[in-house]
């Protein structure tokens, strides 16, 4: 697990070519970057979810919706559900990056290390690894997304034609409340679009890895500008393609749609939105979503790269100090052992010399 990716990829200049690199480093760096980015830009994520639930025929603008939220729910209203959102986003990103790198390594081992450093082969490896990571991550974070959506839609009575959502108790009591009212299956509502939505991340990471491999001047420690441009562009493309799935996921996880035949499944939900609102309904909240994901992704990736570099450097320094300390201790013990042996030998020789010529009493 600690083998460098460069050796497994026949010396190619991959981003994961650092010496003594461990997979947990990617997970830890991902958690740091994602949690910080979500806390900084959370109001946009909150507004995006609210915009997804605007009923058909409405043309409420994002800024107007934000003003209404602040007027009716206060500034704190823009931060409802921030705790579970930060946990969901950071766990999702950390787990995704961990499983992505692990899948890269495992697939490379299965291929016998014969991956060539060409765009097609490398992109195919990234794509397969991203598919594995996306499926695992999507399944794990769906319950967190359900709780997050319920909290964000609580008191959503400022939107036109909206029915007030039931408040969700804080902490684990919220999970018990959902299970008691709707059963365990409710915790996995929207699992289908959530797993498919990880295709968003698959496209994003595949594009980003291509930029990182072919455009970055320093693969070990790329500049923030390079990371920001590559991550922002890749996320904007992926977000635009997958916005309809984000809309239907929010609708499926909305408590007010529980039990409605129109939102019984992902497919019926998409059909309902398409019949009632057309293309406009499929792309509800897209401007807010793009405005959210670009700075959030830039921040998350920049912090991920810098955190990964810092963790890697700190680990190597600690390992070097440990090795040097062990070597010093071994040398010191050897010197002490040699000195003790010399003293014993000298004492024995002296004693023997004194006994020579003396009578031996029986």
What keyword list fits this structure?
362 residues, mainly alpha, 10 helices, elongated, disordered N terminus
Report what the structure shows.
This protein has 362 residues and is an all-alpha fold. Helix content is 72%, strand content 0%. The chain has ten helices and no strands. It has helices at 5-8, 23-52, 62-73, 82-110, 119-153, 172-182, 191-214, 224-253, 266-282, 286-355. The radius of gyration is 29 Å and the shape is elongated. Belongs to the mitochondrial carrier (TC 2.A.29) family. It holds the Pfam family Mito_carr. It comes from Leishmania naiffi. Solcar repeats lie at residues 21-106, 121-214, 222-310. It is a multi-pass membrane protein.
Number of distinct beta strands? 0
Helix-strand pattern: HHHHHHHHHH
Radius of gyration: 29 Å
End-to-end Cα distance: 70 Å
The number of helical elements comes to 10
Low-confidence stretches: 1-19, 157-163, 346-362
Portion in helices: over 70%
Q: Overall mean pLDDT score?
A: 75
Structural class computed from helices and strand pairing? mainly alpha
Mind describing the biggest β-sheet?
none
Dominant shape: elongated
Please indicate the percent range of residues in DSSP E strands (runs of 2 or more).
under 5%
């Amino acid at each position: 697990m600690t083998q460098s990716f460069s050796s497994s990829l026949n010396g190619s200049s991959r981003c994961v070519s650092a010496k003594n690199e461990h997979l947990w480093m990617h997970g830890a760096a991902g958690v740091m970057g994602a949690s910080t980015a979500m806390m900084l830009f959370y109001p946009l994520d909150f507004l995006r979810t609210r915009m997804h639930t605007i009923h058909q025929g409405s043309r409420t603008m994002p800024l107007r919706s934000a003003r209404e939220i602040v007027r009716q729910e206060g500034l704190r209203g823009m931060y409802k559900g921030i705790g579970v959102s930060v946990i969901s986003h950071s766990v999702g990103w950390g787990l995704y990056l961990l499983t992505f790198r692990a899948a890269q390594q495992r697939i490379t081992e299965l291929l016998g290390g014969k991956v060539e450093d060409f765009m097609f082969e490398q992109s195919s490896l990234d794509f397969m690894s991203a598919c594995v990571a996306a499926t695992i991550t999507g399944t794990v974070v769906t319950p967190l997304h359900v709780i997050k959506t319920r909290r964000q839609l609580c008191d959503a009575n400022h939107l036109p034609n909206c029915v007030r959502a039931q408040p969700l108790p804080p902490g684990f009591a919220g999970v018990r409340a959902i299970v008691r009212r709707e059963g365990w299956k409710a915790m996995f509502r929207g699992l289908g679009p959530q797993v498919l939505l990880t295709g968003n991340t698959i496209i994003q990471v595949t594009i980003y890895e291509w930029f990182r491999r072919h455009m970055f001047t320093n693969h070990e420690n790329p500049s923030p500008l390079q990371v920001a441009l590559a991550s922002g562009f890749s996320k904007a493309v992926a977000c635009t393609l997958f916005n309809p799935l984000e809309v239907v996921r929010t609708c499926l996880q909305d408590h007010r749609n529980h039990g409605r035949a129109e939102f019984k499944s992902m497919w019926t939900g998409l059909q309902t939105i398409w019949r009632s609102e057309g293309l406009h309904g499929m792309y509800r909240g897209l401007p807010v979503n793009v405005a959210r994901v670009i700075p959030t992704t830039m921040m998350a990736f920049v912090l991920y790269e810098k955190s990964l570099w810092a963790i890697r450097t700190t680990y190597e320094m600690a390992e070097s100090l440990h090795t040097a300390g062990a070597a010093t201790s071994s040398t010191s013990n050897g010197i002490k052992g040699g000195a003790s042996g010399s003293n014993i030998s000298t004492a024995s020789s002296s004693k023997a010399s004194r006994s020579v010529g003396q009578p031996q009493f029986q």
